[in-house]
Amino acid sequence: MIICSCNVISDGEIKRALDELKEEFPQLTITPDLIFKSLGRQPKCGSCITGITKIMREQDTWIL
Ligand code: FES
After folding, report:
1. Which residue's C-alpha comes closest to atom 2 of ligand 1?
2. Residue 26 and residue 9: Cα distance in Å, rounded?
3. Mean pLDDT of each 10-residue bin along the chain, 64 residues long
4. How many CB atoms lie within 10 A of CB 47?
5. What's the pLDDT score for residue 64?
6. Which of 4, 45, 49, 59 is most buried when burial is the number of CB atoms within 10 A of its CB?
7. Cβ of 48 less than 6 Å from ligand 1
8. Residue 61: DSSP 8-state
9. Ligand 1 pocket, 51 CB below 6 A?
10. Which pTM does this prediction carry?
11. pLDDT of residue 7
12. Residues 6 or more apart in contact with residue 9 via CB below 8 angstroms
């Protein structure tokens, strides 16, 4: 399912980015902006942030 329509980012891509960030940087506080950066994209309209934070909560990722 596409979560970010501006950048065509799916929920699967977000989950994979979260897993990779958590594995590579276990002490790092992960933010939606960091997920965009790890995917090589930038937020545009921002309407997907709610969907991204929902996935982060489902994946037990702490959110600031
Ligand atoms: S939907 Fe993600 S930046 Fe617009």
Report:
1. 4
2. 23
3. 98 96 91 96 97 91 62
4. 11
5. 54
6. 4
7. yes
8. -
9. no
10. 0.90
11. 97
12. 2, 3, 39, 41, 48
* Alpha carbon distance 26, 46 (integer Å): 26
Ligand 1 centroid distance, CA of 34 (Å): 14
Spell out the alpha helix ranges (H) of the chain: 11-24, 32-38, 49-58
pLDDT of residue 63: 59
Q: How far is ligand 1, taken at its centre, from the CA of residue 5, in Å?
A: 6
- Cα(59)–Cα(44) distance, rounded to whole angstroms? 24
Ligand 1 site, residue 3, Cβ cutoff 6 A: no
Residue 6 pLDDT? 98
Torsions phi, psi for 3 (to 5 deg): -100, -45
